[in-house]
Each structure stands twice: as structure tokens, then as C-alpha cells.
Amino acid sequence: MIEIRGLTKEYSGRGREAAGVLALDDINLKIRDHEFITIIGPSGCGKTTLLKIIAGLADFGSGQVLVDGKPVTGPGPDRAVVFQGFALMPWADVLHNVTFGLELRGVPKARRTEIAMELLTMVGLEGFARRLPKELSGGMQQRVGIARALAVNPATLLMDEPFGALDEQARRLLQEELLRIWERDRKTVVFVTHSMEEAVLLADRVILMTPRPGTIKEIVDVNLPRPRGRDIEKTPEFTALKEYIWDRLREMYEESSAAAITTAVKA
Q1: E strand or H helix that includes residue 120
Q2: Which of 35, 70, 124, 147 could cysteine-pair with 119, CB 3.0–4.6 Å?
Q3: Measured between alpha carbons, how far is 182 from 69 in angstroms, rounded to an integer?
Q4: CB atoms inside a 10 Å sphere around CB 104
Q5: Superfamily of chain region 1-78+156-244
Q6: Angle at the Cα of 61 (from 55 to 64), degrees rounded to 5?
Q7: What is the DSSP string of 72-94?
Q8: How buried is residue 236: exposed, middle or buried, by Cβ count under 10 Å (0-12/13-18/19+)?
Q9: No. of H helices and E strands in the chain?
Q10: pLDDT tens for residues 200-223?
Q11: For 111, what's the count of Cα atoms within 13 Å in the CB-facing half-sphere?
């Protein structure tokens, strides 16, 4: 279980008199084992910052972040991150990219190659092990990123808008792939997105965050049956959830705009 208690994060300003920026304010959240969570909110609300803190890649001001009761003090083998920008080593072939984490952990070459080839088959990249990243499409590169994250067998998969830079066709295919992988392995997944459809399609619960400073406005349960195929998007239940999330986000945008206008008038 991941527990976040009273978490705040402030970025210091530049210069002696520059004010800091409060990115996250009093975040409280429990993520159950094997749960698929999506996080959505306005740009700049701290979604990526929150994910990096859970990953141990960013510090924070106050509060606690616990994984299975232990404080997060840095990256760990129990958590793996998939970034939007793929973050592959451009000079290394697909196989080396996938096995890199295993090599760092001292896994023998034969075993890490075996693990990598199984995962490449699972994500539909059998036959591409010796290709360089530049020889692959964006969707294929992201499949390599997913395989690399899964290779170290983390308990938790942290995904920062991993499909955001892809075209619609690639995005849909990878959503389906991710759902299939999750159904098989049931890892805990925390997934940041800007897409309401994606948030509902993938999640057990959708976390709605407010404009900066980011707080949790609401947690929406997604009571749709699993396993989920594309037909679920045609149901009234899916549409109702998507529209509800949009209504809540629109309210937050309107409240934020009104507050900004009021502040400007007073100034």
C-alpha cells in the first residue's frame, strides 16, 4: 500500500526576494495494492511532481510518503517509472534498453536476456530486439519503455502521461496493451493523464486535482466491469463518468479564472 499523509511541496523562488511557488498542498491519499489509479487535473497542478515524489525522484517539504509502511527516501526496486518522453538510451539496442535495469541488479546475462525476450513478445516487439530506438515508431519506443519498467518486476508502476505524445491510433493500442498487462500481473499502477477518456477507461479510481497549489478535490470510483474492452466506451455508465469528471474539471477552471480576475482587480 502507498500512503500519502499531509504532503506539501514548495519550489523556492529565484533571487533573494522572489516568492516560492506552492506546488502541492496537504495531499492525503491511500493507494491499495494491485489498484489502478489515474490522476487528472489542470496543467501545472502538480500531477508529475506528485508522481516523482512517490518514485523517490523529488523531495518534499512536509508530510509523509510511505510504501508498505516504510518512508520513501529515494528510488527503490519496488517502483518503476515510465515517462512520456520514452527516456531510452539512443545508442543501445532494444534488448539492452530492456535489460539495463536487470544488469544493474546483477542478474546473469542469460537470465536477463530471457526475461527481456519474454517481455518484448508480450508487448508485441518480438523480432525488434536488435533495433535502435531511432528505428522504431513512437508507439514502439513506448512499448520498449513499458517492457523495461516491467523487467525489474516492480510492485508499483508509475506512469507519467506515457501515451501523451503518441498519435490516437498508437495511444489506443497501448491503452489496450496496458490493460491486458495489468489484468495478467495486477501490479499497483499510478497513471498521470490529461485525457478524461483514458482516466476512466483504465482506472479503479480517478483522482481529481485542483489548479495550483495542487490538492485532491475529489476521488471518483470507476465501477465498470473488468476486463475492459473498447465496447465499454459505448456504455451510458462510461459516458456518465466521463461527463461527470469533465463537469468537475470545468468547475475548477471557472473557479480558478474567477479568483485570478478578482486578484488582478484588487491589485
Answers
A1: helix 109-122
A2: 147
A3: 24
A4: 10
A5: P-loop containing nucleotide triphosphate hydrolases (3.40.50.300)
A6: 55
A7: --S--TTEEEE-TT----TTS-H
A8: exposed
A9: 7, 10
A10: 999 999 999 999 889 999 999 999
A11: 8
Longest Cα–Cα distance of the chain, Å, equals 68
* Residue corresponding to grid cell 466506451: 233
Alpha helical stretches, state H, 123-215: 138-151, 168-185, 196-202
DSSP 69: T
Closest CA to 156 of 243, 100, 81, 50: 81
* pTM of the full structure: 0.89
**One-letter amino acid for residue 171 of the chain:** R
| The pLDDT value given to residue 122 | 87
Cα-to-chain-centroid distance, residue 79? 12
- Please, which residues bridge with residue 90 across strands? none
pLDDT digits (tens, 9 = 90+) for 98-135: 999 899 889 999 999 999 999 999 888 988 999 999 99
Q: Which set of grid coordinates corresponds to residue 96?
A: 539492452
Return the number of other C-beta atoms located less than 10 Å from residue 230's C-beta: 10
